[in-house]
Amino acid sequence: MDTIVGKNNKGAIVTIIDRSTDWLVMKKLPHGKEAFADPHAPWKKGGI
Asked: Containing H/E element for 28?
């Protein structure tokens, strides 16, 4: 998992990569890097 942060920390994207299948998930964080982790996120439940 990686985080890409934009200019002046105004925006951010989190990426999750599965190297065995080359599967990539990218999600924009609406509050930049100050966003909190969502415990109900789809990848926490095992599906997208």
From this structure: strand 23-29
